[in-house]
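A reminder from the course coordinator: this example appears on the midterm review sheet, so study it carefully.

Given structure:
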């Protein structure tokens, strides 16, 4: 057998993708699995975006694109950032990639040296930690509380900053919690980062359009730290374009140039057809797109259903997320209970139990750095969610 590198042997598999794989395997064996583990909208890509992709093929836009993305798309991204976020960027500050995940990896690889410390407020998206490891960095966990909707404060962060702190990565709206930072909360964080000029900020805003409250706020709006902020965004979630694999970052020219250089050696440019489709997606104001508005309304109804049902189950503590399409309830009160000799003593055991006993796929909170919780995605139909909650309630009721 071939000897694999230490790098790949130390790399953890994405727990969300692993659970989705297990769900597919059980489903292929005849199990009626309801998959609440994957962050993928169940809606189709809007027709006007699909038409743009078809036109790109008919117009033979099928050759290698520039590594950083077509100029027309980067100009459209600049237009979107100014129109929707009040942020002024130029095309040379934009790099288009094969999904937001690659944009994050490009930024981390361009900024982090071996031994550098990267702050990760808990809970965090599963891939942040592994990307940091690949760069040779050291992740530093910063605890948060469900009582504050898992949002980190400047006071909490301050305790973990050292001379080696190079970067912080966080998301708003958040995966896995659905939490959304307010302008004042971001302002407080910005003041802390202003006083620590060695720290860069990766602001993952891929769920920007799935926001049930006030308008989306970006930490890049604060001029005194703008040059150290790397905005991550894309079209996967807000436009239901997960399979098109199209993300982007906006950053200071030096950082954008570095990520372009890195991407040029890894993958080159993103799919030319996807770029033309994304350009069309970003052209209209979001509120003028009927399909995305309907999708947002559906997600809000689904959220409300899950919260209502979860609050009926003894041992599960939750809150009301204001964005994305996840709920991250605290299930630690169930630990120590058992059924048929199986003891539920952590989030992995609970997720396994729900998959095997209720045929509902969830993701253990430990995957996101918080062993007291599990993540449920409501990116599926009301019918599926209603049935899933019946099954979860019944399975939890069996525990004693």
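Designed residues:
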């Amino acid at each position: 057998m071939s000897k694999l590198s230490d790098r790949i042997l130390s790399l953890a598999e994405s727990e969300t993708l692993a659970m989705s794989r297990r769900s597919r395997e059980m489903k292929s064996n005849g199990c009626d699995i309801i998959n609440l583990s994957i962050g993928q909208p169940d809606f189709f890509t809007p027709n006007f975006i699909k038409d743009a992709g078809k036109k790109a093929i008919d117009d033979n836009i099928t050759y290698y694109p520039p590594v950083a993305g077509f100029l027309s798309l980067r100009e459209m991204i600049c237009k979107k950032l100014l129109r929707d976020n009040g942020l002024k960027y130029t095309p040379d500050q934009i790099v288009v990639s094969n999904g937001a995940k690659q944009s994050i990896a490009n930024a981390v690889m361009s900024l982090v040296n071996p031994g550098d410390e990267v702050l990760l407020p808990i809970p965090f998206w599963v891939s942040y930690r592994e990307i940091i490891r690949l760069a040779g960095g050291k992740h530093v966990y910063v605890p948060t509380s469900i009582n504050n909707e898992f949002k980190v404060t400047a006071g909490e962060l301050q305790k973990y900053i050292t001379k080696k702190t190079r970067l912080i990565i966080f998301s708003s709206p958040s995966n896995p919690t659905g939490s959304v930072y307010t302008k004042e909360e971001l302002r407080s964080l910005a003041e802390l980062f202003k006083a620590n000029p060695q720290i860069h900020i990766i602001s993952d805003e891929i769920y920007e359009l799935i926001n049930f409250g006030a308008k989306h706020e970006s930490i890049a709006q604060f001029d005194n730290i703008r040059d150290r902020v790397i905005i991550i965004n894309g079209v996967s979630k807000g436009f239901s374009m997960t399979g098109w694999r199209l993300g982007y970052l906006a950053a200071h020219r030096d950082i954008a140039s570095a990520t372009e250089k890195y991407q040029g050696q890894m993958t080159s440019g993103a799919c030319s057809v996807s770029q033309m489709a994304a350009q069309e997606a970003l052209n209209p104001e979001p509120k003028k797109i009927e399909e995305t508005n309907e999708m947002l309304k559906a997600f809000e109804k689904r959220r409300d259903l899950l919260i209502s049902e979860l609050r009926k189950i003894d041992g599960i503590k939750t809150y009301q997320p204001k964005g994305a399409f996840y709920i991250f309830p605290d299930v630690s009160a169930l630990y120590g209970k058992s059924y048929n000799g199986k003891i539920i003593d952590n989030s992995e055991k609970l997720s396994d139990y729900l998959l095997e006993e209720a045929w509902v796929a969830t993701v253990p909170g430990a995957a996101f750095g918080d062993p007291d919780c599990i993540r449920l995605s409501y990116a599926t139909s009301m019918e599926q969610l209603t049935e899933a909650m019946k099954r979860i309630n019944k399975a939890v009721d069996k525990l004693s």
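The mean pLDDT is 96. The CA atoms of residues 14 and 127 lie 7 Å apart.
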